[in-house]
Amino acid sequence: MHTMIIGGAGMLGQKLAASLAGDTLTLVDVVEPPPFPNATTLAADLTDPATATALIARRPDVIFHLAAIVSGEAEADFSRGYAVNLDATRMLFDAIRHAGEHDGPYKPRVVFASSIAVFGAPFPARIPDDFHTTPRTSYGTQKAATELLLSDYSRRGIFDGIALRLPTICIRPGKPNRAASGFFSNILREPLAGLPAILPVPDTTRHWFTSPRTATGFFRHAATLDLALLGDNRALNMPGLSATVAEQIEALRSVAGQAAVDLIRREPDPTIAAIVVNWAQDFDTPRAHALGFRAERTFDEIIAVHLLDETGA
Amino acid sequence: MHTMIIGGAGMLGQKLAASLAGDTLTLVDVVEPPPFPNATTLAADLTDPATATALIARRPDVIFHLAAIVSGEAEADFSRGYAVNLDATRMLFDAIRHAGEHDGPYKPRVVFASSIAVFGAPFPARIPDDFHTTPRTSYGTQKAATELLLSDYSRRGIFDGIALRLPTICIRPGKPNRAASGFFSNILREPLAGLPAILPVPDTTRHWFTSPRTATGFFRHAATLDLALLGDNRALNMPGLSATVAEQIEALRSVAGQAAVDLIRREPDPTIAAIVVNWAQDFDTPRAHALGFRAERTFDEIIAVHLLDETGA
Q1: Label partner for A251 (CA 20 to 30 A): which of A10, A79, A233, B66?
Q2: ipTM, 2 decimals?
Q3: Alpha-carbon span B56 to B70, nearest angstrom
Q4: Predicted model pTM
Q5: Which structural domain, as residue segments, surrounds residue B270?
């Protein structure tokens, strides 16, 4: 089995690679991914039309496509967001099409990292599986348009694709970053390490989460699932945990005590609050559930996964 | 007011042009549209990157974009469908963006002809305004992806856009064609003219309709509406009439008598029946209704409009 991970230098790409020990791996990213056993690592510019052709010439059986310009950057740089998130992905899809047409039968599995950013307010209390995609960002637009192409190319038999609409990943390892969603991880990760963290939104803020380990599992499960079960709609809302900031903090308290909670400083930021108020809060995901996808049920679990995977505790 | 109609040689484009007598018109199509008073007529290849730039250099205030490769052809010719329906439209959108960036303020109104083909089965009994877009054809995929871009470009202030998801147009004037939906018009238009027609599906088949006159009115209304009322989701399900074939035939009987009905020959076609069973049957359209869009309420009205507009009766 030859597995290619595009976006292989990123946090999820690295975790996914680490979990696929038995496979022959090709890890691709804009910077060369760190070396891995059984892995070829490549630096590649996905916006160069020659890149997709060269990658597909390696004939991977499974392609995980995780590479993207993140939400904030896609909003700040219109052209670059469309070039990487929409056009480069389409070039990849078309390279698969051309390979199948010109070089004999080829129909890889394509697992695409989509996002709940395809959805936009106003929302029902729980977002159903058949809720419309009305993104409020260029990033969400690019993900939603790519999902449509992925379903059509799959229906056409060009590849066997699935798009996973991932919840916000929490607890994200590493340093605090300036992503608008960063605080959801910061207020747990930093206090767990004895460091201060800033909370820019009210404690009542509700959002939709899964751990890095579970998200990695979603990708592996999607790579082996019988995708005919999805029919022609290959975009799937992943399960997650709906929780408020207050519930996050209670979980922190139960794991690490009041001293950890006291490291959170409330510093309301109207700009971040105005962004977050338009984010999805809760989903009903019977379709993914029936296909065997499972997420955490409590924030205590999410914290436990973080301590185990990131600190070895 | 300078109004450009792309797809100006088509049935709806011609009717729209005829209804815009006061405007300065530019009619564009792949074949040169027939001459019109106050109108410039242009033949243009929309897939040529220079075309969009040249059209936008004329700085139309309102752009009606009706040009498309139709459903059957987009399914038969993958590359051409994507090139015209998705890529050429995006080139038009980007030409507007570049004109605004390089040649001073420019923010035209863009009215885009979308379709209920953005929706795919399984459907609820009545499709709500927030139902997801899961097209079952490449044509529907191209329309749905374009809608997403149109909403994002509008949110960004590049133009002021709206996408109208049109019902099936009935009664379509002209000769019978081989479109899978053609029979809905054929079984009325032909008997009204004393000619035979073939009905390939059961009388219980239900679908969603509007007349050419009403569809033309939708476009004109969309050109003057305050689009801020739509928020960031610029795709709008148009109102229509949900009717069965039996209801169509009853209306034909009441207008033209049993002799006309007797001209319909039932000739079941499993291929057409299999396509039509996946089409939308009924919608609930409160959003369009609140914005002032109105459709016919009976098939008698649709037939009366046809007789008045096409035969002068």
Answers
A1: A10
A2: 0.95
A3: 24
A4: 0.96
A5: 182-208+240-282+296-311
